[in-house]
Every structure is written in C-alpha cells, then in structure tokens.
Amino acid sequence: MKSLCVLRHLLAAALLALPCAVSAAAPPVPGPVRILVGFPAGGTIDVVARLVAEQMQGDLGVPVVVETLAGAGGQLAAQALKRAAPDGRTLMVAPDHTAVIVPLTVAKPGFDSRTDFAPVGMVADYAGALAVSHASGIKDLRDLMRHVQAHPAAGGVGVSAPGSKPQFQLDALARSQKLPLSAVPYRGSVPMVQDLAGGHIAAGITALGDFLEFHRAGKLRVIAVTGERRSGVLPEVPTAAESGYPLRLDFWVGLFAPAGTPQPLIARFNAALNKALDVPKVRERMAAVVFDPRPGPPSALQQRIATELEQWEPIIAASGWVRQ
Q1: Are the C-beta atoms of 120 and 257 separated by less than 8 Å?
Q2: Rounded to whole angstroms, how far apart are CA atoms 128 and 249?
Q3: Helix/strand/coil for 95
Q4: What is the pLDDT of residues 220-273, one digit of tens each?
Q5: Half-sphere exposure at residue 213, Cβ-oriented, CA atoms within 13 angstroms
C-alpha cells in the first residue's frame, strides 16, 4: 500500500511538471505580432507576407498583422526592425535585396543583417527571368544578343531597382560576352514591366512572376529563366544557361526578428512558419506568383545570407559600383 501511495505521488508530480515542460519548449507569444514589409502593398512580397501572417496567427494564438513601411529597397522596414524590442512582437518579411544587396551597395543602410537581425526561417525561393517586348519580334536569348550586337543602342535592359542583382549580373554578362548591354533601372518591377509591354524598352529582367500575366496575354515574351532549371509554370522556356549564356539569378524571401529575441520564441515562430508553408492553400497561392516555399531551420536562412554576401561582394566591386 505504501509503495502504491508513493507511485501516486510521483505520477501526480510528473503531471504537474508536464505543462511547465511544454511551456518552456513552446513559450506563449506575449501579444499581437506585427510583420513589417518594406515593399508596396499588393506586390508579391506583401502578398506572401499576408499569406504567412494569416496562417501563423491561428497557430500562435495571437493577432498577426502586416505593416507596410515601403521605401529605399526595404531599408525603412529593416531599420524599424532593428529599433524594435526583441520581445516577440515584431518580425519582418524581407527579400534578399534588403538582406544582402543593400548592405553591399549603400554606405549607411542603417542596419547590418548579420548582427541586427535574428533569422527565423526561409520563406520561399523565386525564379528570375528575362523578357522582351512582343513588338520586338525577338524569339529567344540568342536572338536578343544578335540584335544587341547589330544595334548597340538597343542594349538597354530594364531592371527593377538601381543597385540590384539583375543590374550587377547584367553588367557581368556584358563584360564576359563583350556585349553592349546596359541596365535601365526602374523604381520597382511594375513600371518596368509596363514599359516593356508597351515597347518602350526592348528587354527586362525581374522575377518571373512579375512577367507571367503579360506573357500569357501576349504583351511580352519571356525568353529565358535565370535559375538552375526550367520553371514548372513555363516549361517550354529554356534557362539562360541552356541558351549558352552565364546569366544566373536566384531570389528569396526570409522571416526575421530583432537581434536578441529569445531562442525559445525564435523556435516557436520557426515552427509556426514551417507549418504555414505546408498548408495546401498557401502553397497554391505562392505557386500562382511563382514562389517555391522553403521551410527549414533558422540556420538555413543565416547560412544563405552569409553565402550570398560572400558571393555578391566581388561581383558588385567588379562592376565599379560606388556606395550611395
């Protein structure tokens, strides 16, 4: 009988300790969470952030809202994240341009993505593409390069932002192939794609998803994707490498918290993010804008940033870019 009482006491103690253990492993989120986005409402980054916010809200048990702080290639949102308290109430969805390219091209960006942010996790990869005006009559990438060689004045290629991955990769391609190519920077993909569809520029480079609607409507023609493999949404379009040109551009989006955010909260957010990225509705809507969900640990995002900072620094330096 005595041993039975001891067993009951031990079982009761274990049951009382269980909620504490669960709580320590998955701490409650302290209150409403805002996700900062440094790009205009309605754009692809904003759309993806809202998809993720909607799904994470149910899992975290608190409201999760998206707050737009558009401008300066995401710098305004990044600076706001740096200033935010590391208490689990503020996160940021940001693309590689903000986390990698801005720190390498801007003299005083107001943040360091390696020390001022705590990576939560990768959100998605997305493909780049090169397109031409439908009115140009250009059929493929080799055709475009022949056209540029014959008409050097037609070598202007629209890019979605000054000091961006497409601009630097285009510069590297022009130098390696001895082609009269030059970047025509825009303030965003939307005006660039509109000018391309209107025949005001001959070619442009940006995310494949930004071209898709116009391509399907016959207003422009996607002639190459810039990733490692062809896209499932346009399987007939070859990669730039298949066409014989070393034009490689990959883009991505990640979720960040302020540096100093407690690791149990980072783990809680990462788990909620990964769960959201596995929801069929989320995957379907991301696929519609040609985003590929990339669930994984915070370390994957941290490593991606470190790798790309090392990769892009010499490319930018070789272009002669002077930090603005």
Answers
A1: yes
A2: 6
A3: strand
A4: 999 999 988 999 899 999 999 999 998 888 899 999 999 999 999 999 999 999
A5: 6
